[in-house]
């Protein structure tokens, strides 16, 4: 199976490197291109694969095509090359504002959406899958198999696309930000240096992930085990309860509002 990647930006690169490292695909079966070919060639030098000069060339040379461009560019990539797609291919968008129904409205082939997470680069975490109503069973199985090499694939309905993506795809950035603030505050208030605090916080997160992965504790159980009544942790939790307020509710409200803006533009492009 020939895999095509259109767009080798951050997430395109993550997908390429994860697929190759996990041996989901062989470099000889990878076709890729980018608006700036230099970026694609840099990936090729490290991972192998074939860099092609145009989107059309990737489409004509591949069985499954991942479109890894910005939401508002997906329509243009498809429309400019619509005569190059064939009915036996599968086209996959990796962006939440473009629905599988929109892809199906202008493509003659199987369509799906695969929303990755940067955690997939470590061959871990979750990826989100949504299949079009006209997507063949064979392609559902093939895409799921690819996703399993680098993640735990979870099928989602259109209605939860944004919030699921916030948790899986945006979540690493959100919690990285919180962790950095956690580290910066420790350095500012105490005698610890930034390097030591960073190592301690990073290893703590790795250990926390292992506890959850092995089902040793649930999130509430973890809080209960660590938070001794009247102890230091309890004091810290009390501060967080007071100061965080509705920060996460406001976060999801903001991402939903941005999602509505983006989907309004893609609806105007696709007409559905």
From TrEMBL:
Pfam families: F420_oxidored, P5CR_dimer. Its EC number is 1.5.1.2. It comes from the Bacteria. Catalyzes the reduction of 1-pyrroline-5-carboxylate (PCA) to L-proline. It comes from Rossellomorea oryzaecorticis. It is found in: Cytoplasm. Keywords: Amino-acid biosynthesis, Cytoplasm, NADP, Oxidoreductase, Proline biosynthesis. It is an enzyme of class 1 (oxidoreductase). The keyword Cytoplasm applies. Pathway: Amino-acid biosynthesis; L-proline biosynthesis; L-proline from L-glutamate 5-semialdehyde: step 1/1. Residues 162-261 form the Pyrroline-5-carboxylate reductase dimerisation domain. Belongs to the pyrroline-5-carboxylate reductase family. This is Pyrroline-5-carboxylate reductase. Gene3D superfamilies: NAD(P)-binding Rossmann-like Domain, ProC C-terminal domain-like. It catalyses: L-proline + NADP(+) = (S)-1-pyrroline-5-carboxylate + NADPH + 2 H(+); L-proline + NAD(+) = (S)-1-pyrroline-5-carboxylate + NADH + 2 H(+). Residues 2-96 form the Pyrroline-5-carboxylate reductase catalytic N-terminal domain. InterPro entries: 6-PGluconate_DH-like_C_sf, NAD(P)-bd_dom_sf, P5C_Rdtase_cat_N, P5CR-like_CS, P5CR_dimer, Pyrroline-COOH_reductase.
